[in-house]
Specification:
The complex is a heterodimer of chains A (326) and B (327). With 326 residues, chain A is mainly alpha-helical. Chain A is built from twelve helices and two strands. Chain B has 327 residues and is an alpha+beta fold. Chain B has two domains: 2-225, P-loop containing nucleotide triphosphate hydrolases (Rossmann fold, 3-Layer(aba) Sandwich); 230-326, Nucleic acid-binding proteins (OB fold (Dihydrolipoamide Acetyltransferase, E2P)), CATH 2.40.50. The chains are: A mainly alpha (326), B alpha+beta (327).
Chain lengths: 326, 327
């Protein structure tokens, strides 16, 4: 499935890239036309129709046409809200929110907190990933525990954390309710599986014999990790860190339960301030200020998420072309 | 003195039966021991166990020093892998120099690479090298640390034939004075490089001896067949039994190159197959329905009848009854 099928119509002299740009440009024009005439639904029909026609012209195969047509319906569900969201924002409100110091703090906390959580996930997750890649007694149990946060509803994860580490929990002297520690803990709980699994896959992809070769020629296990296993897995580890970071940025449920608002040292102002994690802030703005105001904040947060998304695409895309080798 | 190994280890893999390796052998200083066996006989696992890659029972000693309690990095071994196992993120120079910092006495990796004819690749990365080049770099990496014992796991198996022959010559030079254990399934390589051969099957060493002993006097049908000797059960071949003597309980083995073809001899055989090999023909002949292989310069037709002679000094009666039969 990885090989590209030849198109029915010769693309010589046009190229796939140019065709894709033309298709996207056509979609944008159609959307702008539909939106400005107040008929966004028309665009939905246009997208399905244009996809079906393009598929037919290029492939002439009813199976491909059917798959592309049905697939485009899902694409509408994903893309139309995004397009309408961007189109319906008020530029003046976005500018106002861009200059709002509360929003600055939100974005600062929304990047900084998840970075700490990703770091925690990596520091403790990479050694675990290495062990899991080698295998040990009781491994299935540990694997289940690692993957548990992926299936637990995140508000439930927040409750679990409060029971475990909150009042009357494992560390009575450490306050986690409404603190930075609590927020990072909640984020790490839900994002650590991404760091562990990505790092583990990277370690598993390394041939055992490279480790043997390192050991037999004199390097002990630490040296082998430093010179061979670590460098070969570094892209997977970084990818895991970024995935964990992205997951923590988008985390709402667990953070809302454990640390609805937190006080932290805000470097640009040089003082301690109180703010909310970005998704919580957006939700709060929606409840208090309505759709328009929360939309402007959401727009800014979307831009941050977009940048993270591009970083992930860059990291994971590259790793497939180099076979995971740095 | 030298290497002594007496190890047993059990291996389990998902979806496969457990596999036991249980073997004992000695390698004298300066001697090359070739472990010869079919795929799946456990020879690679044996070598890796001796190297310390797998936990095991028993002992490995080097010049009387017990190394089996030490991790691989403290055993003073060099290892050459079938699939090279070069570090893909390091240049050729860095690969060859990998172990230097962990050893006091080393050889200059650049000199070694030059001796092996790959010193023009110093700044290249392994994925850009050919198989033969990779294996030469891997050999340099192992030799650079001046190991007490070289362990080689089918280093030629992944190479094409001309490259294999070149590298085999280089290996023969390298191993002249080295203490080495060399694992292979290729009997030609084994014969070319071995001072002694250990034939392995199903996790155990089934015969250990000089190449001549292994090839001329196999201890079992398995060894005979795997080393390319003819193995003939005399119970199945009355005409051969009549010509050579022996009973229905006996079997003989003889190298195909020792079987003589002519107008007269011990027994008549029918040509069943003729395969042209480099400078000669490999004939498969039938005696009472049993196949016997021989080499010949002539190229007979299928179905031709020929006389076979089995020179007594090359004929080996198996099951330990040869003295009685000859008497």
């Amino acid at each position: 499935m990885a090989t590209r099928t030849e198109t029915r119509v010769s693309l010589d002299g046009i190229g796939r890239g140019a065709l894709a740009v033309a298709f996207v440009a056509m979609q944008i024009l159609a959307f702008v036309a539909a939106y400005t005439t107040g008929r966004p639904t028309w665009y939905a029909f246009f997208m399905v129709g244009s996809t079906a026609v393009t598929a037919y012209v290029l492939q002439g195969d009813t199976f491909v046409v059917a798959a592309a047509t049905l697939g485009s319906v899902l694409m509408i569900a994903l893309a139309l809200p995004l397009f309408l969201f961007v189109a319906r924002q008020s530029p003046s409100l976005i500018v106002e929110k861009t200059l709002d110091s509360d929003v600055h703090r939100m974005i600062y906390l929304g990047v900084y907190g998840p970075l700490l959580a990703a770091l925690v996930s990596l520091v403790f997750g990479v050694p675990l990933a290495h062990l899991l890649s080698e295998g040990f007694v009781g491994q299935p149990l540990v694997e289940s525990l690692v993957d548990l946060p992926l299936v637990v509803p995140h508000s439930v994860a927040g409750i679990l954390i409060l029971f475990g580490f909150g009042k009357g929990g494992a560390f009575p002297n450490v306050s986690i309710l409404g603190t930075m520690v609590g927020m990072v803990l909640a984020m790490a709980f839900v994002s650590a599986p991404y760091a562990v699994n990505a790092a583990r896959e990277a370690f598993e992809a390394i041939d055992d014999r490279l480790e043997y070769a390192s050991r037999i020629h004199g390097a002990n296990r630490w040296e082998t990790f430093r010179r061979v296993t670590g460098p070969l897995a570094v892209r997977g580890i970084v990818t895991g860190g970024v995935l964990a970071w992205a997951r923590a940025v988008s985390e709402f449920g667990a953070v809302a339960v454990v640390a609805y608002s937190v006080s932290f040292f805000y470097l640009p102002a040089g003082e301690k301030v109180t703010a909310q994690h970005a998704p919580v802030f957006v939700y709060n703005t929606y409840l208090q200020g309505g759709l328009a105001e929360s939309g402007a904040v959401a727009f800014l947060l979307l831009a941050v998420s977009g940048i993270i998304f591009l970083i992930i695409r860059y990291l994971t895309g590259d790793s497939t072309t180099t076979g995971g080798v740095v | 003195m030298g290497l002594h190994a007496d190890v047993s280890a059990t291996f389990t893999a998902d979806g496969a039966d457990t596999f036991h390796v249980d073997a004992e052998f000695d390698v004298e200083r300066g001697e090359s021991l070739v472990v010869l066996g079919p795929s799946g006989s456990g020879k690679t696992l044996l070598l890796e166990t001796v190297a310390g890659f797998h936990s095991h029972d028993g002992t490995v000693t080097l010049d009387g020093r017990r190394v089996s309690d030490s991790p691989p990095e403290q055993r003073d071994f060099g290892f050459v892998f079938q699939d090279y196992a070069l570090f893909p993120h390091m240049t050729v120079r860095e690969n060859a120099d990998y172990g230097s910092r962990y050893h006091d006495e080393t050889r200059d990796p650049i000199d070694l690479l030059a001796e092996l004819g790959v010193d023009d690749l110093l700044d290249r990365y392994p994925p850009t090298l050919s198989g033969g080049e990779k294996q030469r770099v891997a050999l340099a990496r192992a030799l650079a640390i001046r190991p007490e014992v070289m362990l080689l796991d089918e280093p030629l198996a992944a190479l094409d034939v001309p490259t294999r022959q070149d590298l085999r010559d280089d290996l023969a030079d390298v191993l002249t004075d080295a203490t080495a254990v060399y694992v292979t399934h290729n009997r030609t390589t084994a014969r070319a490089l071995a001072d002694r051969i250990a034939v392995m099957n199903d996790g155990r060493i089934v015969q250990l001896g000089t190449p001549e002993e292994i090839f001329e006097r196999p201890s079992s049908p398995m060894v005979a067949r795997f080393t390319g000797s003819n193995y003939v059960d005399l119970a199945e071949t009355p005409s051969l039994r009549g010509a050579l003597g022996g009973t229905e309980d006996d079997a003989i083995s003889i190298r195909p190159e020792a079987v003589e073809l002519g107008d007269g001899g011990d027994v008549r055989a029918t040509v069943e197959r003729v395969v042209r090999e480099d400078a000669t023909n490999r004939l498969t002949l039938s005696v009472d329905g049993e196949a016997i292989e021989a080499f010949a310069d002539v190229s007979p037709d299928i179905g031709d009848e020929m006389w076979l002679t089995f020179p007594p000094d090359r004929l080996y009666y198996m099951d330990g009854r040869e003295e009685a039969i000859r008497a």
